[in-house]
Amino acid sequence: MMMKEKTLKSNKRGGFTLLELLVVVAILAAVAGTATIALKDTDARASAAAHVAMMDELNKGIRSYRILKKNELPSNLDSLVQTGTAGDATAGVGLEIAGFSIESDGSGDAYLMAIPTDVQEVMSAGGITALQYVDTTVTPADSPVSCSDLAAVVNSRGNAVVAGNIFMSPDANGCGFSQDMDGAAAYMGVWWQGGSERLTGQPESGTEFDGSNLATADSTAYLLTGIGPSSTLFDANELGGMTTVPVYRHVGPDEYGRFIAVWNVGAYDGSGSITAGDQVELVTIVDGALDTKEEELGEWDGTRNTI
């Protein structure tokens, strides 16, 4: 009797029942779902953390360059302006492929307006002797597409043009040209209209320029320039030059992906004009969407969902 029972037990087939399999599948799905939630936007948030570090490095790099070069600022920064008239920086529009809008009526994220000749003279005296502009009348080297359509020339598979290098010359696979800040004419520039408090933490006592009150503003005038590869800041032969051109990656593939320097160049005088200051001062670095360091930190720690 006992031998028969043992034989019967040894002949039972092992395995999982359907119910057991369903339970295992449900557990695995729950674990996978938890991991997905935990890893959501991890790459983007890591990029935001890297962007904050790059903003700090650029800020320190420009200030170190100025010290090492005996009060000389880096030149050949990107103007963020394009022109449809060959080589003429007095007639331009905001860069079409920028990750933010640049308008002359105050409706954009930044304001398009001429750089007064006296401001240019102060810039040049401080080391910013030229700015890079985009010329939409040219064609990059070996490109089947001209610069008349910046998005098309950047997206073309038949050339080596990339958005971040769009201010370089056509021979260097760009659409740009260099314009001396010699005070000979009022060349176009891009101006901050987000208020001083976002940049410095301190509001100004006067009427701050907001893109719609140029005629009455009497506050600091902040000029914006892109920090692109043409800048002497990245010239390895220059004392204090940085070795790498940082890239801002929270933009589309055909948008300008560089960081932006904010310069104090003078003040609005309350009547629609800008009076030059004694010298140009770097205020801060903002990202390619015109977000400040603190705002970019919000993307990193998840308190801002703008990625």
Number of helices: 7
Main sheet strand line-up? 3-4-7-8-9-10
Strand content: 15-25%
User: Quick one: overall form?
Assistant: globular
| Low-confidence residue ranges | 1-10
Coarse structural class: alpha+beta
Radius of gyration: 27 Å
Can you walk through the features of this model?
The protein has 307 residues and is of the alpha+beta class. It has one domain. The chain has helices spanning 2-10, 18-39, 42-68, 117-125, 150-155, 196-200, 293-301, and strands spanning 77-83, 93-94, 102-103, 110-114, 130-135, 176-180, 188-192, 220-226, 260-268, 274-286. The strands form 2 sheets. The chain has a 6-stranded mixed β-sheet with strand order 3-4-7-8-9-10. The longest helix has 27 residues, at 42-68. The chain is globular, with a radius of gyration of 27 Å. The termini are far apart.
Please write out the topology.
Elements: H1 2-10, H2 18-39, H3 42-68, E1 77-83, E2 93-94, E3 102-103, E4 110-114, H4 117-125, E5 130-135, H5 150-155, E6 176-180, E7 188-192, H6 196-200, E8 220-226, E9 260-268, E10 274-286, H7 293-301
Parallel strand pairs: 1-5, 3-4
Antiparallel strand pairs: 1-2, 4-7, 5-6, 7-8, 8-9, 9-10
